[in-house]
């Protein structure tokens, strides 16, 4: 792993490691984590060759950036790739006494505002640098601009208009000045890649939980369009919030919540094929997205050292071609979806989109 194993990030000319860690769990989404344990987890990632780190102001309301920066700031800046996000500015809460950090189980006591304006993007970027204690990041993602956070269409359109009226220009200026190597958007929902590309030629999309071993519906309609237009793809949430790492168990999570019945049935089928080939389900989940030439990297979010150690082994676990073909034969991976180990996909050039 490390910087020796990289892929090009779309048409940017920038290379990124094929695997990295996200720091959402270290922002204490599911449980409080001591500073010692957080730093030990990041240290274990580094020792296992991880050189791509993704964070955001929203992760633990600043905690994720603080922890990532405290770990990385003494490292040689040329030895790793760092991404964070814009679109949320952290602010002092109106009522300090009664403020709740939910949905984070821990994190810091800061409120936030969504701001995708020219000034808001620049302020968010500079605030992130100070929380990180590092004066340069490589990639900026527009964060959580979708119907999950803006369920009313007009509210979503208003925020997209903020980007069109100045936010995109701020990001373009940062890139032109050499402050960042690339900018793009974090995607949580189907359809949003197209909505962004209809408005601006972004460099990269960080796709969370929507192109995984469990679901690939956006491949032909969105990932291939992004690739055609020169955008790179980074896949986050490769375990769909946990179930593809843990398998079926009482506390298995899917998209940060309980496991739906239909999803559980599909996971059981995936587990059965994995068992037949003695392939860890988590290994298949980590390696699957890189079967597509559109995908530059995959991210997973550890909360403890043991997860890093296990996933480093999973990422390098040998998986026979027959395993992927068995998943395709059972309809768990569609015919047009590229498989790891295949020759570079021709679907893009055959007009699938």
């Amino acid at each position: 792993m490390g910087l020796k194993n990289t892929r090009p990030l779309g048409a940017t000319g920038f290379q990124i490691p094929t695997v990295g860690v996200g720091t959402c769990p270290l922002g204490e989404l599911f449980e409080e984590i001591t500073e010692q344990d957080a730093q030990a987890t990041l240290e274990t990632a580094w020792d296992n060759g991880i050189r791509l780190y993704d964070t955001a102001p929203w992760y633990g309301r600043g905690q994720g950036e603080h922890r990532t920066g405290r770990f990385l700031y003494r490292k040689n800046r040329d030895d790793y790739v760092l991404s964070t996000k814009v679109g949320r500015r952290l602010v002092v809460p109106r009522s300090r006494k009664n403020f709740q950090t939910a949905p984070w189980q821990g994190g810091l006591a800061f409120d936030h505002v969504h701001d995708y304006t020219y000034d808001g993007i620049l302020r968010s970027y500079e605030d992130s640098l100070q929380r990180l204690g590092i004066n340069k990041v490589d990639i900026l993602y527009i964060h959580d601009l979708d119907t999950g956070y803006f369920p009313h269409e007009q509210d979503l359109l208003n925020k997209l208009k903020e980007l069109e009226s100045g936010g995109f220009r701020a990001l373009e200026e940062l890139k032109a000045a050499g402050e960042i190597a690339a900018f793009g958007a974090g995607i949580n929902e189907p359809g949003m890649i197209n909505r962004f590309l209809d408005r601006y030629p972004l460099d990269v999309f960080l796709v969370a939980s929507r192109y995984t071993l469990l679901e690939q519906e956006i491949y032909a309609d969105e990932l291939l369009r992004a690739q055609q237009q020169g955008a790179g793809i980074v896949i986050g949430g490769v375990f769909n919030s946990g179930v593809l790492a843990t398998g079926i168990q009482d506390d298995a999570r899917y998209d940060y919540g309980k496991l739906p019945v239909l999803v559980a049935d599909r996971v059981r089928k995936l587990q059965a094929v994995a068992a037949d080939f003695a392939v860890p389900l988590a290994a298949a989940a980590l390696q699957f997205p890189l079967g597509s030439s559109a995908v530059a990297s995959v991210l997973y979010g550890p909360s403890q050292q043991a997860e890093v150690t296990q996933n480093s082994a999973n990422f390098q676990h040998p998986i026979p071609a027959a395993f992927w073909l068995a998943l395709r034969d059972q309809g768990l991976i569609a015919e047009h979806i590229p498989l790891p180990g295949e020759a570079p996909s021709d679907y893009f050039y055959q007009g699938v989109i």
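The first strand starts at residue 6 and ends at 8. Confidence is low (pLDDT under 50) at residues 345-353.
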